[in-house]
Amino acid sequence: MENRTEIxxxxxxxxxxxxxxxxxxxxxxxxxxLNKKRNKRILSWIIPGVIIAVLFCxxxxxxxxxxxxxxxxxxxxxxxxxAKAPSQKTNLVSDQKQNQKSNPKLxxxxxxxxxxxxxxxxxxxxxxxxxxxxxxxxxxxYEVVKKYKVILKxxxxxxxxxxxxxxxxxxxxxxxxxxxxxxxxKTTETKSKKKTKTHSTKHSKKVVYKPLATxxxxxxxxxxxxxxQKTVSTPRVIEAKIDTIAKMDxxxxxxxxxxxxxxxxxxxxxxxxxxxxxxxxxxxxxxAISGSLNSASMIDPSMDNLATKxxxxxxxxxxxxxxxxKIGFRAGFSKINLKTSTRLDKxxxxxxxxxxxxxxxxxxxxxxxxxxxxxLVQKLSYYELPIEFVYAFKKDESKIGMEAFTGxxxxxxxxxxxxxxxxxxxxxxxGEAKNISGINFSYNLGIGISYKLxxxxxxxxxxxxxxxxxxxxxxxxxxxxxxxxxxGVSYKF
Amino acid sequence: xxLDQLIKDCCKQNRKAQEALYEMYKKTLFxxxxxxxPNDAEAEDNLHxxxxxxFTNIKNYKGNGxxxxxxxxxxxxKAITRYKQSYTLxxxxxxxxxxxxxxxxxxxxxxxxxxxxxxxxPHQYRLVFNxxxxxxxxxxxxxxxxxxxxxxxxxxxHRAKQILKEKIKSKSTFYYxxxxxxx
Lengths: 493, 183
What we know:
- Chain A: Keywords: Membrane, Transmembrane, Transmembrane helix.
- Chain B: Pfam families: Sigma70_r2, Sigma70_r4_2.
- Chain B: One of its GO terms (molecular function) is sigma factor activity.
- Chain B: This is RNA polymerase sigma factor.
- The complex is a heterodimer.
- By secondary structure, chain A is α+β, with helices and mostly antiparallel strands.
- Chain A has 2 domains: about 80-255, no CATH class; about 275-490, Beta Barrel (Porin), CATH 2.40.160.20.
- Chain A is built from 5 helices and 16 strands.
- Chain A has helices spanning about 5-15, 25-100, 185-195, 220-225, 365, and strands at about 5, 120-135, 140-155, 155-160, 245, 280-290, 310, 315-325, 325-345, 355-360, 375-395, 400-420, 430-435, 440-450, 455-470, 480-490.
- In chain A, the strands form 2 sheets. In chain A, strands 6-8-9-11-12-14-15-16 form an 8-stranded antiparallel beta barrel. In chain A, strands 2, 3, 4 and 5 form a 4-stranded antiparallel β-sheet that branches.
- The relative contact order of chain B is 0.11.
- Chain B is mainly α.
- Chain B starts with a helix and ends with a helix.
- Chain B is globular and about 60 Å long.
- Helix content of chain B is about 70%, strand content about 0%.
- The chains are: A alpha+beta, B mainly alpha.
- The interface of A and B includes residues 9, 23 and 33 of A.
């Protein structure tokens, strides 16, 4: 009788003995794809990082530039306002006269001035007091103190505004016109100075100083009306509370001259001490040397014990620097070339180093037969995008300035070349190192020394140390670094 | 190198460790892929995709269960994803005959031939047959993995076995007649 078995079990047992290997190229394909993934991962971090950094710097620069312009325009506007004030006051005084003519009641109380205020503005008289200073047969002098609270609403922004300013008015009953003399009380002015600091809005709407004067009726004697009408405190739209003191200067009665107004130019304290951002461009060119912080070879671990030399190469490029007083940023574009030379054992030229991809057409043994001193030269060059933080620790009027900078560079590999040379054969390109990554990063640390030639130009010399963070595709033992001396010229805008 | 150390190094994306791990498991996973794929080329593609997945997600392996089991599951899942799209729902009644036995002599065929029979099965049958017979998944698990019903899984297994049985029988007749003539 035949032994029958279940097909599934039988196949399983049979296939357990299956022994088959995949083809050789599967791993190389996996390796290539893993490298691509790694580069993509790095780029996915770097590209947004660089974009954010550039945006941040741009925003920072333009923001400070905008603030500066706003401040300047505000100052200019205020100066213009101050300059225009006398004429405006005159106009307003005449307006006030007309208003009072049409409404006699306005002449009798100080609060009438409130009616002159624009609809967007609310003025409140908080305190009022009058004090008799001098009383003679000819005149009486009163000191009237009024305290106002003014709120000005602009674009849904409530701003507390207080009127200030004092009118000193001398009334000459016999004169055909009432002549006004406006004089600021010194104490008031001091307060005013302090409080009229620019609380400017971004819309740069000018707040106009509008003194309002009350016309004194011609038929009334100064003696009768002095207590109530002779002195009028003028509201001034500013963002503070101040006291207004109006004095009736009796001495002016004797003078039959044009009403005199004294305006003192308000000096605005610049609260914003932030200076203009300094923008400068530098070009540099300098020598560079590279190597490994430990003795490990950048090509292959089996070459660790061989003698190496570090020929001088070049580092050149351009920087844009923005300084805000003592701190700032610099970014740029440059190219750095690195070179390391390793003396090979003449009996073992390019043994089976895993990390060297040899050119197929090169026959090394044949070419270098008879050479005693054969050097393997590794040339690497990178395009560099540095972003660095700068701190100026010596920045004064002297010609020499010093600063320190630190940051990171994003490096894109341009050249990865391995060459052989000997005393008999000139440099012969043999291939490239397989272990070098296409994208690299470096940590930068340097000192900048500058010498001012004039206000715009200066000479720079920047010793710079770079430590490379991801030179290798795999984690290599070598710790590559470079030292360069960037020397060049800066132009300050 | 110790497997744990190798896994740790692979987590750091150390290329040498990854290569060592590949060398360690390439045969196992390739044979597994061969059973699930219709030919060697697709099995290599599946192996490639599986190792990329393994190296990308190796940090997610927490040590629960065997590492080999974990990477095998990844390989099987890759194969399922590859052929799931072409999966057709072919549910049949549960009263199909259960006789899927073959003679010992009939199945005494070369390994390559048996493998080719499996590879020649339609995708859906091959997946179910492999999962159920070779990798010991239950119909319930297969149904979940392939997003099908259990009855569909059972019917596909039945059809797969039927096809295999026919192929083995015909091949064995041819094989033995050839051997007989040869003698």
